[in-house]
Amino acid sequence: MKVGQMQILRQQIANELNYSCKFDSKHLAAALENLNKSLLADIEAHYQDPSLPYPKEDNNLLYEITASLEAAGIHNPLNKV
């Protein structure tokens, strides 16, 4: 039961962060969402056609965008392990 309550709390915090980000800075929220969608589309395209490039391990873009997305509440905390 505590795990379920913590998941609900994490989801509510993410929703509040997302709402605040969209309210305070619409352009930042839109840019982060579009960058996330484009990165995911590129990664999905790589898995469909392995000849397409994939971000290298030493590329920090995915780690940095993850931190920015979490700070803006544009993520699903229930999918995290």
Automatic annotation (TrEMBL):
Entry GO CC: endosome; WASH complex
GO terms under biological process: actin filament polymerization; endosome fission; endosome organization; regulation of actin nucleation
InterPro entries for this protein: WASH_strumpellin (IPR019393)
Family according to the record: Belongs to the strumpellin family.
Name by which UniProt lists this protein: WASH complex subunit 5
